[in-house]
Amino acid sequence: MMLFDLSSLRLLPPSILLTKSCRFAAIVPVLTLWLVMAVSLATSFTALAKETFSLANIQAERRELEMASATDKVDVIQDIDQRIADSHNDQVRRASLYIVKANILQHHGLKAIEDNIAKALLLIDEQTQPELYLYAMVVKSYGMYIYQNQAEQAAIVLEKVQQHPALKNDLYVQVQGLSSLLEVYYKLKDFNKIAKPLFQLARTLTSKEIAPEYQGFFKELDAELAYHSGLIGDTNQAIAGYRKIITDSKPKGQIENIAVANCNIANMYFLPLAEKIQYAKASLAAARNLSCSDAMEKLVLLDEVQQGNLSNIARLSQFHSNQQMPSLNQRSAYYAGLAYLKLNDLAGAQSMANRMTDTENWERYDLLQKIYEKQGNYRDAFTASQRYHQLRAQKDADARALMLSSYQTRLEMAQEDTIAAEQAKQAEQLQAAEQKAEARLQLMLTVIAAGVGITVVLTLYLYRSRQLQRKLQQLSDTDPLTGLLNRRAFLRQAEHLKQLAERQQFPLSVALIDLDFFKQINDQYGHQAGDTVLCAFAKAANSTLRQTDLCGRFGGEEFILLTTQQDTAAFAASLQRLQQCFSELCLQDKQLGYAVSFSAGITTVFEQNAGINQQIEDAIRQADEHLYRAKASGRQQVCTEDLCLQLVSA
């Protein structure tokens, strides 16, 4: 609109100005009016420049940038930076752009979040822009619980966001806040609180009243339901949910969504390793610069090592700088450690175990037990195995607790709907509520059926775990060469047998056995021949001794035998049969071909009638003295306290 016409302001001739002062006086008001109008126009332009974006403008711009970032994040970030530079007079819009930038870069490390949120909070406050402030708090909380292990503090922040009255003005922040709150509760294992926000999220995103511009915009519901299914062990449902996200993202070129979805599948606890590897490869094929990419790469490297491909093993010790999530750092080290074990690189495996500092991480103890077992340290392997099975059992219990909590919340929400329908007293509303209750009842039955299946799977898993634990116990109790009890296991079982003998009043005797000239066999024929002799003795012992007798390798060429024979003569006869069988086995062996004898010392551990009751260690020392006497008397003898008997070879 034309405010004034400059052509109407004509300059008068100087003669008139000088000679007719009255006309000059008439021009002064016109000039004054022109000056006032110019100042008013400048003020209008300044006010227009300072006009801020409305909440609707901010929300529309946010949706535009979020959708564009799914296909071309680099260009979108550059676009945001340009918009920030152009909006230097609009603090509210600048703050919104900083928060959007932090949200888009949330998978790229803590610094990107903190720097941009700090800049935004300098421009806004909770009283004047509550919606933007809540948005900033939701994005900031992500950095707290993902990168800083501050899940409890993040829960406090997000719970306050949910209670804020301004939250109802921004559906986007409602959804993001609920989604983040769920992740925090999962981290804290606060299962009683998880189900309610999950179903609240489902209600929000499936509501018929959702604004048209947000129809199909959110993927949080599919992601949260898939994640929830994975935690309770319903892997098929979880994979189906993530595949839906992948299918929806492919036509739009949203490679980051595809990579993250495959990464989430690969990180599922109940998924077999072979399937984890398949989805890790799919994640890396989509994108390699995400916070989960390093863990996926280590998993693929483990598969390559298992297949014999060693071309990339140098990358096992290399960790991506953009992976700052503690849980994924631990998992990367776990997969790298398994690969080093496959390569028999115990030092490399130990260095990966040292990176895993979380004492509540079952993967850490799985790696440690495998390292200790490779080192022959069966005691520490057994301790690590016990802790590993405790943590796995706790994780299984957590899954059951979450499933039961979900069932309880569904029941409570169904009851709330029923009460609301009764209060409305309208037939149409009551009929709708009954239909919803019936659908939820069907869903509950489905959950119960899934729970029964999961319980069966967990039961089979626990049975298998106990089998493995028993096998590990057997390995830690057994001499690896002969298969007989080792010294520690023999002494433990001997104590138990002595206690039983004292209760049931049966005799107990011990014999300490030493193979004759064993050192000469090793020196003359080699250690392989010596191992063959040791194995022949073990085989002879298993063939001739009774099932109630205990036999173990005491160390080197020494063996020990605990028996319930009634008298010394019967015990000596048993040793004679053992000597004959042992000699025959040595003669029949093609590598040996000659007889080998042994010497033995016998003593009584417990005999009620004779008033003898020795400690196991004392009896072994006494048997050792008798053994020394047998060897000093020419070997191939068995000696007691009173006499020595010659053993006859085959």
UniProtKB/TrEMBL annotation:
One of its GO terms (molecular function) is diguanylate cyclase activity. NCBIfam families: GGDEF. It holds the Pfam family GGDEF. Residues 506-643 form the GGDEF domain. The chain crosses the membrane at residues 443-463. InterPro entries: Diguanylate_Cyclase, GGDEF_dom, Nucleotide_cyclase, Rev_trsase/Diguanyl_cyclase. Keywords: Membrane, Transmembrane, Transmembrane helix. This is diguanylate cyclase. Its cofactor is Mg(2+). SUPFAM superfamilies: Nucleotide cyclase. It catalyses: 2 GTP = 3',3'-c-di-GMP + 2 diphosphate. It comes from Rheinheimera tangshanensis. Its EC number is 2.7.7.65. It comes from the Bacteria.
